[in-house]
Amino acid sequence: MKNQIGLHMGYWWGTEASDDLNRILELTAQAELEILEVNPACLLRMTPEACQKLLRRAKDCGVRFTLNGGLDATNDIASGDEAARRKGIEYCIRVLERMSELEMTLWSGVNYSAWLRAPQPEGDAQEEKVRACGYAVQSLQPILRAAEREGIDYCFEVVNRFEQFLFNTAQEAVAFAEAVGSPRAKVHLDTYHMNIEEDNTCAAICFAGVSGRLGHFHAGESNRRVPGVGASNLDWRAIGRALRQAGYAGAVVMEPFVLTTAFNAKRTRVWRDLSHGATLQQLVCDAQTGGRFLRGILEE
Question: Which UniProt keywords apply (predicted)?
Fold first, then answer.
């Protein structure tokens, strides 16, 4: 089974299509990609009728949806604040129950704590990490029961030390998923984050694959450009071999953040134009090039 190649909607943020999901879908299809990854806020803003209309259009384009995105300080299910944890549990279950409206069967991201959370300046960071992981595992029990009912893989994204502290490597994430215990508890790996944290990216991919927990994969250059567009310091052929050796048949989704005009540019630390002044049509061509490049390394 061939891996389907996709693109996170955030690639289009900062362009004239930023706020138009139908246009984003159209551009993604023009780039010959098979998956459009949307965030939970986008899903929750849509009415069921709008979801039905978008889903019909996506099927006409040959595109399906996955979900990516997480939590913040107000609904952090790993928080020491019980009210925040309750709010997060309710939020996650509400998202899971709406995913079927776009026929989504996978939710990835920092959906186990708040994105960009760091330990408190005072106190023991390691002690806080253990405590927060405990809260997260406890909170995830009702959430994963909902995921099981809905037939959804709940994939914990392994991000770098500057974006989260509960876990930063494949090995830590697999242990966390095992502690959660559900067969729907999966691990989401991302080459951008792995380039920062892993001793050996390919070994980490294989470890997650052999564990049976590898549920989702993001592909991006070490500076978050589109893979295969310009120079690279990542060994993409080795990454492709590792995914095959891991038996990974899931989606490979590009998550490039390249525009300083994107609404989230400050949060993703995009301080220079990594698109090199690309027009909207050039962005389509770059995404198309990235998709073709990834298909090539996965099929070698």
Answer: Isomerase
User: pTM, whole model, 2 decimals?
Assistant: 0.98
Q: Let me know: does 154 contact 186? Beta carbons within 8 Å.
A: yes
Look up residue 275 and give its two tokens: 């698109």
Residue 42: count of CB within 10 angstroms of its CB: 16
Side-chain half-sphere exposure of 120, counting CA atoms within 13 A: 10
Instruction: Assess whether 157 carries a catalytic annotation.
Output: yes
Write the CATH number of the domain with boundaries 5-299. 3.20.20.150
Note the pLDDT tens digit of each residue in 187-234.
999 999 999 999 999 999 999 999 999 999 999 999 999 999 999 999
3-state DSSP call for residue 41? Answer: helix
- Backbone φ and ψ for 216, nearest 5 degrees, come out as -160, 155
What does the domain layout of the chain look like in residue ranges? 5-299
Count of residues in the chain: 300
Residue in 37, 157, 198, 221 annotated catalytic? 157
Whether 128 is catalytic: no
Q: Which residues pair with 67 in a beta bridge?
A: 38, 107
